[in-house]
Every structure is written in structure tokens, then in C-alpha cells.
Amino acid sequence: MLEEWLGPEFNYFHQGDGDLGERMARAFQENFQRKKREVVLVGVDCPELTAFHGQAAFDALQSHELVLGPTGDGGYCLIGLKRMVPEIFKSIAWGTDSVHHETLERAKNKGLSIKNLNILHDVDVPQDLPFWERASNQSLSVIIPALNEENHIRQTLEHIGKISHGEVIVVDGGSTDNTVQIAKECGARVLSSRPSRGGQMNAGASEAVGDLLLFLHADTVLPDNFSSLIRTQMTSPEVVGGSFALKIQPSTPLLRYIERNVTWRTRLFRLPYGDQAIFVRASLFRLIGGYEDIPLMEDVEFIRRLRKIGKIAFIPVPVITSSRRYAKTGALRAILKNKLVLFGYYLKVPPSRLAQFYYKKKKKKKKKDRSSTF
């Protein structure tokens, strides 16, 4: 029956008799007898579980002897081992909220090194069905880090409007203007954090309830159908995240050149920047540890880790971002500065030094005193 459903390219084995522990122990034993060095078993009742969690389990087994994927009801939906340990499968009260705890205690008594993945939710009883529905509908959390953005954030939030199956979170970094008030007026949920873009985005993600996370700059406007565009991309199981094309306004010929360069870089190198509105699966974001809390290049560092796991999607519909930073320093100077910072990053210059260079203000020349004294 399973082969008719899933196809002949997989190997199928009968579980045999016994309780859940006996059947899992048998599966591990048989695979270790086939000279497998690491073995991972997963349940089929956890809609949040993806192939990326399986890969994370195998990665963790390189440095740990036991990997568990705990569930919110006290059990687990994934278990991985490097060698057979029969004790963790015997006389467990399967189907109760003590399964994960009891397994951990027995593993500790055996001296095993243990890695727990992030907590997911499985479906055991009718009351758990909302987890299945939520995974199917792919709810979306839009997370906006902000600091003194009163001149731009209203337009950004009003254009988002009310999201079907979603939420908007603004993480304020200590604004001294009306940013927080405007965000609340627009219906966003407002959190506070110290001023650090990576830290602010992590703070928002930690409170988000969406299956998908969209990180948006406060001066960037999304396309009208952004949520459906994202959800369509994320229905593909190999896609781990993605971004949009970029349009900079008010526009100039040089800024249009930057837009084309962004499209080329994103398509060829799968390296979008934060101003392109990066989106990612929430479970995967937490699995890999979120953004690095560094002064600069947190978006590049995150995408470089993310693209090792799976496909980075590119939506050719643009988000519209403000040209203010190009107007402030001059487009040509901004392009050169961006290239130098990226070059320095790949040369492993510390992000703190890159930030000092990037944010360094141009010194104003002192005006000569033209007054005369007699």
C-alpha cells in the first residue's frame, strides 16, 4: 500500500510486532547490522517536521551519540543514534508526557552525549489538529526591526495591512521619535530590544507564531500580493527561504544599475541582502540559531548558512525601498563602500571594524572665519 502511494524508489520494511519501543529498537538494530554508522527514525504525525530536521539530526550525530526532536506534548518525533542503546526503549510509558524526560534520564545514566533539536508539535488527538491546519496554511509573521523610523514606518505598515493567517511585529531598538506610537496605531505588535538589527530580528522571531518568517526593513514597501507569493514559493519542499527583487525610489540611472546588479547577484550567487525582504521557514530559522548578533553583515552571514541547507527562492516582483542612504552619501560612494565591506567580510575582517568603516560619518570642514579685527 505504501509503495503504491510513495513509489518504488524507496525501501520498505515491516515493523514487526511489539510496542513502539520494541519496534523502534528493532529498526535501529537491523540498520546497525547493515553497517549503518548513524541511524535516524522519524514519526509521520508531525506536520512541522521537514527534511531539514533530518539533516540537522545527522549533522548533530557527528559530535553527539543521541539526538532527539522533542514535541510539545512531552514525547519526541525524531530520534537518532550512533550505536545501539536498548535501555532507552524498554519499559517506557509510550504516549504519555514523560517519554522525552524518561529517555533523557536513561541516556544520561548511560553516559551518552545528547543533542535536543527545537520543539515541534505532533498530532495525536483531535485537539492537535490546529497544528496540522497551521502547517498546511503556512501562517506568516512579518518582523520589522526599527529605530527612529517615524518618517517611513507608517507607509510600510499601511501597505502590509491585515494579513490572512499572519501577524506583524515591530521590534523597536529604543526610538526617541514617534516610531512606537505609529506602529501601534497601525495595529502592529510592538516589542522592545537593544539597538542591533540581528538581535532585534531574533527577538521578534522568538515571539512570532507564524510558520514562515519575513524580515522587512522599516523603509521598505512590500508588493500587494506578497503573502501569496511567499506561500507559493514555500510549498516546494526543497526551498528553505528566499527574497524579492529590489526597486529603489526615487530612482536614478545609477540606482537602476544597482537594482539590476541585485537581481544578478541574487540569481547567480543566491545571496540576497536584508533590504530585499528575506523570508524563511520558522522551524528552520530556530534550528540553525537565527541571525548572528553582529554590528554588520548579519544578513549575508545568515544567508550563507541557509543556502548550504537548501534552495534560496527568488521572487522577481520587487519590494520598494527608500533611496535615502544613497542620497545621503551619493550613489557611487555607497556602491563602492558596499563592495569594500563585502570584500572585507570575505577576508574575515571583524564585523565590528566593518561597521566602524561603514557607519563612519564624513567630517564637516570647518568654515574659515572671514571676519576681520582691527
TrEMBL record:
Listed InterPro entries: Glyco_trans_2-like, Nucleotide-diphossugar_trans, Trfase_1_rSAM/seldom-assoc, Trfase_2_rSAM/seldom_assoc
A GO cellular component entry from the record: plasma membrane
Main location: membrane
Compartments, as annotated in UniProt: Cell membrane
Keyword terms of this UniProt record: Cell membrane, Glycosyltransferase, Membrane, Transferase
GO terms assigned for molecular function: glycosyltransferase activity
Domain Glycosyltransferase 2-like, residue spans: 141-267
Keyword Membrane: yes
Name the UniProt record assigns to this protein: Glycosyltransferase 2-like domain-containing protein
Phylogenetic classification of the source organism: unclassified sequences, metagenomes, ecological metagenomes
